[in-house]
UniProtKB/TrEMBL annotation:
It is found in: Nucleus. Its main location: nucleus. Residues 186-246 form the Homeobox domain. This is Homeobox domain-containing protein. One of its GO terms (molecular function) is DNA-binding transcription factor activity, RNA polymerase II-specific. Keywords: DNA-binding, Homeobox, Nucleus. GO terms for cellular component: nucleus. Residues 188-247 bind DNA. PANTHER family: HOMEOBOX DOMAIN-CONTAINING PROTEIN, ZINC-FINGERS AND HOMEOBOXES RELATED. It comes from the Eukaryota. Gene3D superfamilies: Homeodomain-like. It comes from Dendrobium catenatum.
């Protein structure tokens, strides 16, 4: 029997070939594993688990609860917007109305007759009560500038009458009340009003030029400062008396058309 003997070189070649085949198989297996891992990872990203569904349901329930809460209990910002709109709808008060409210605020809300005050101002009773309970800043400042005599002499408070018969008797016994015109009340308030700093500067500038301004100059001062005529004349008289300016009397001229104070 004839046996084929392999040389050492032939054996080395076969070993190298086996090693190369093993490495190629290993690399191909690694490539397959990498491909499958990528596919599985992409599938896992797109897949939604049960935990994700539970969290999604909780978020939806919370969102629906928040919407229902907002409908039942509106937010504070919405309330502030509504209140701002209501304030804008309220008509702006005039100066004489503010002064009258300041007098009522000075003597006290409990001592003032809300019914008479609302009819005098032409405002609703609820509006008058709101202004006296929560006065705006300009009304508070005007009340602080009023003299203290107002608080000492409060307005008469009308007490409620039980029956119409008693009211008829009280009306017959009471004396007729003097009705003061509105323009007279405005003049009194203007006389008691303090002179502002800007108005005082204007008066002092005119006084520096002339101690006795003419009627035309007084008209200009009244137009610029919005002070009443009598208030301007009284200021110049007091200023001359304070500075010791002697009384100046001009001779009578029949043709003179310009008067001085």
């Amino acid at each position: 029997m004839h046996c084929c003997q392999r040389t050492p070189e032939h054996n080395d070649r076969e070993k190298d070939k086996i090693d190369e085949d093993a490495f190629e198989a290993l690399f191909s297996q690694l490539e397959e594993d990498l491909k499958t891992d990528v596919i599985f990872s992409e599938d896992e990203k797109d897949e939604i688990t049960e935990d994700d569904l539970v969290r999604l349901e909780q978020e939806l329930d919370e969102a629906l609860c928040d919407e229902e809460f907002d409908e039942v209990f509106p937010s504070r910002s919405d309330d502030m917007n509504y209140s701002d709109d209501d304030e804008e709808l309220q008509p702006k008060l005039k100066n004489w109305q503010l002064r009258r409210l300041a007098y009522a605020l000075k003597i006290g809300r409990r001592k003032a007759s809300i019914k008479n005050l609302s009819s005098e101002l032409g405002l609703e009773r609820a509006r008058v009560l709101e202004l006296l309970r929560e006065p705006p800043p300009n009304l508070v400042m005007m009340c602080a500038s009023l003299p203290e005599e107002v608080a000492k002499n409060p307005e008469p408070v009308c007490e409620p009458v039980e029956s119409s018969f008693d009211s008829d008797i009280s009306i017959s016994k009471s004396e007729p009340k003097e009705v003061v015109p509105v323009h007279v009340m405005q003049t009194r308030w203007s006389m008691q009003k303090r002179i502002k700093k800007v108005q005082l500067i204007t008066l002092e500038r005119v006084y520096a030029r002339t101690k006795r301004p003419t009627n035309a100059m007084i008209s200009s001062i009244v137009h610029v400062t919005n002070l009443p005529w009598k208030r301007v004349v009284k200021w110049f008289e007091d200023k001359r008396l304070e500075d010791g300016v002697p009384v100046h009397r001009e001779p009578f001229h029949r043709s003179s058309h310009v008067k001085t104070i």
